[in-house]
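Inputs:
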Amino acid sequence: MDRRHQQRNFLSCRQRSNLIPTKLVLKIKLASDGSVDKYKARCVVAGYRQTAGLDYDPEVVYSPMAEPTALRLVLAISSALKLNIDHLDMKTTFLNGEIPENEQFFCSPPPRFRVSDGMGWLIKKGVYGAHQSGSIWAKTFRTRMHKNYPQYVEDGNERCDYVMRESEELAPINLDELRGLKIEKNENIIIMIMNTDDMLIAYSDNSRDLVDSFKEIE
Amino acid sequence: MFDDHLSVSHYAPSPQHTQVSPVESHSYSIEEDQLLKLDTASDDKEPDDDMPAISVEEGNLDTTTSMPSSKYFDENEFNQQQPDSIHKKSNVTEKMSKDISDKVTAAESLSSMSSTRFGQVYSESTRKAKVIYDIITGDEISVTGFLSMGKDDVENSGTIKPAFLICTLVKAYKTLAKEEPAMRTHAAREIALLRNSKTMAEALRTPQRVEWIDAINKEISSLVDKEVI
């Protein structure tokens, strides 16, 4: 086969494969009594059409998740110390993580969205369905926690568990020196587990204001 | 977004494809009237759900679309899985089981077989035999218009799964629409409420068109506001 012909075929294939298709996933959300709560549409990217090495780095797609044992341990500690437990659901989580410039990719709009030939959406942040979205969000969240909330300490090797403990005078307490399950009066303690977009928070009564402010910021 | 203008970047593929960069900006808009005309071919490619497609436009119920090819009862499986103990118990049961086998064979010759799938609408279009046989008496039982329920349709707590209930309700409304033409509009609206639209074309044909457009606008707006695209 003519070499020029081969090259032309290669380019046209690459051009087609580089535009990642998107789709709108429609869902009727029902309330607890069975009535229609809301109509929800979510724009997702066909991640299976992404090319490893071009559209994402295959070695950086890891998103940390809390171990079930860690979750049970937090629940046990909360029970022993009589902590309050709350669950937070982050809205449009992935859309907050920024994609590195060398991994940004083009995608076509969902069906029925008119767009000229050769035009597409340049994805700059994480979107649902993309390979790197989970990893990017985890990085963004961790960086934000280190920068804005330095009093929250990562719990051992768990990258998604954070513990904040302060005395009544708001002096930080060294967690490594603690022995036994004890908590002083008027002490602030917050234990947080982040599983992608689901957050579990255990906190003492004194820390309620801190948790509320954290909720507002997020 | 349907009303507002969006800016998109020009897609400029490079031979090496190591980097892609926006070259120029372009604006476009989508009008609602054009939505129904655009990209019908692409929607046809999208996989349909298990439920039969139904048109509810202008209150007309279209039940002519093909039903999913499922099977109410697997006669082959039933015939093969008869335990030996049943045949050895007595002559009466042996004779009865023989009669059942004969009838099953006759039914097999009449019908085109497919694999058993619980919780599916009994397909009238692809099946000719619409009877099953009582295990004890061997009598024929007509199952036309009935739904089959299996273990997959029941939760561990013993309650029936919502998916099966929805399937049952849709079937009931279809039967109602067939028998009473005056109720077709009402049935079509109820079916549209029960079903979760899979594609945008499907959603825009439902009476909840406005709600779906609002939801889509909201999602695209959030993408623009957060500077995802």
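Residues 9 and 141 of chain B are 64 Å apart (CA to CA). Flag for discussion at group meeting.
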